[in-house]
Amino acid sequence: MHWVAAGGVLRNMTFAMMVFALARPGSDLRLVGIAEVAGAAALGVMNLVVLRRVLKLTPDWTGAVRGAARMLREAWPLGAGEIAWAGLWYSPSVVLGTFASGQEVAWLAGPLRIVLALHTFVWLYFFNLLPGLSRALGTFRDEWRSLVTRSLHTALWPAFGVAVGCTLVAPVVIQRVYGPAYGPAAVPLQIVIWMIPIAWFSGHFRYSLIGGGHQRWDFAASGLAALVTASLAFVLAERMGAVGAALALIAGGLVNAVVAYAAVSRYFERVRLARATSPVLIATVLSLAVGFGTRSVLDPIVGGVLGIGVFVLLAVRRRRELVELARLPW
User: Are 97 and 178 within one domain?
Assistant: First the structure.
């Protein structure tokens, strides 16, 4: 699995390096597409090298067409689910472009790029956890429930920590990444950053559905979420601009989490969410209260640092749970 993780890093690093190397003011936007294709090509080459040099396997192309057709019939819900998941993330920007100026789209697209970069770690986390989920579902359901509960206990702390920190210091983050001209993008960033803990939470149930052979339900959850996101974006983006589109994205993420959790509860076991999530939710509320409460009296940066400090202190008190990250069955 570490080679899989390395491939994801290589793909994104190739994309980023080509953008930095080629993009200039006035550059053709198709350069971004070329960079994306280059990243995918780098991943493909690396996979072939690892197959031959590390796993000592030589791809056999005999019957490749029939095999590809059979795989397509079995795996199309996975691909459709990924397309729907992409629709969930990008439909607010597309809808916003029909109602607002290019600047409003930039106020959303800029923060969205930051959040999607952070989401890479969410995706890699579950990509590595998927074999453990699948193995647990194939043996004893109690083992799966224990694994999911332990993971929720641990993984949500860094997820909510990122969301709390970025919410409190969003203006500083935007200025450092994009410059002062992107100041209006701070509020959309404060909203869309909460997709990180939402996606980290829902991923436990989405990937459980995939590992348990219920890919169609994962597709249904992502498809419904994308539909809700696009519909709300049409309503909110026209009235509130980038902020409304950001709120639509969060609403879609919550719908995805609810549907995925309901499907898992129906086909597998119900996970006791209150016990697994209440400590981090309490820490989040306290941290935000301290951060926003003190920034009106003190300097905004000082208030943000104090709020982040409160979250870190509360997280350290749960250090035994954080140590469990290293013990999860990757």
Answer: yes
